[in-house]
Amino acid sequence: MMRVAILGVGSIGKFHAREFRDAGAEVVAILEGSEEDAKQRADMLKEEFEIEAKVYWDLDSLLEKEELDAVSVCTPWKLHSEQVEKCLNKGLHVFCEKPFVFDSKDGNFETAERLVKLAEEKNLKLAVNTQWLSVVPLIKSTEELEEFSMYMEPPERYFSDMMVDVVPHMNSLLIALGGDGKIENIRFGEIDQGLKILFDYVYDGKTCKAEYVFAAKDTRPRRFEFSVNGKKYVREVDEDYKQDLVCGEERIAIEDPLKVSVERFVEAVNGEGKVLTSWDEILKNIELQDFIVGSYKN
Predict the structure, then answer these.
(1) I want to staple 93 with a disulfide (CB 3.0 to 4.6 A). Which of 12, 70, 175, 292 is the partner?
(2) Which domains are delineated in the chain?
(3) For the whole model, what pTM was predicted?
(4) Angstrom distances, CA of residue 206 to CA of 121, 148, 197, 238, 266
(5) CB neighbours of 174 closer than 8 A, spacing ≥ 6?
(6) Taking the chain, what is the end-to-end CA distance rounded to the nearest angstrom?
């Protein structure tokens, strides 16, 4: 059985723990920033998900003492690159929350590229949880991408922090649908509790009009929708957290994207498939992230 540690279980990390367990992995350890937090979070995992994990508040100690196959990195963004590098150097497969790297506002590509090369050299799986890629096979068509928009509702923070939270998801779909491209004519506009980002995505000699919009919301479920060439898809969630993509009269049942993302990673580590995010997609996403966040002046 695959043995995994979750680094940071205070927010999305607890759901990573649940999905790794459900995918057949054993969650053997967790990491938090202090002994008190680690013990509290371990109690929470046991109560909510019946997961019993050893507690650590020092990554070096965890890596020295535990026999692991993989880690899931859900710590604050500024810690990602250092922790991912330590785990790869320890010979562990890595599943990392987005943003993959955010050491600075607009200078993250070289670090991301170095980490991808390290994973390649060590023949390890490295995935980033841009989970909405799981819906691409359901909506991708042979049409040229002329228009793409996406709306999300991250927890309330400063606009720049909310942008870093949602832009990797938005970039992932744009890249999957349009391929390798570059951003031109970027503009920003404030909306109620959020921001609108408009730009041209130039790819393969073509231009896609892109619009990213986000507005703060602290409670779940959070609204999620996107539009491809004028065709709008809205995520709907019922009381049992079953999810559908609704497009006009069409209703498409979907698996929880986080569940799919974790399952694909576990399968890849077990030699049974590929992770959801390719290394080329990871690096292109960081390139676009650097450009968008670096272009925002406030």
Answers:
(1) 70
(2) 3-129 (3.40.50.720), 131-263+272-295 (3.30.360.10)
(3) 0.95
(4) 35, 13, 20, 39, 37
(5) 148, 150, 181, 201, 208, 210, 288
(6) 47
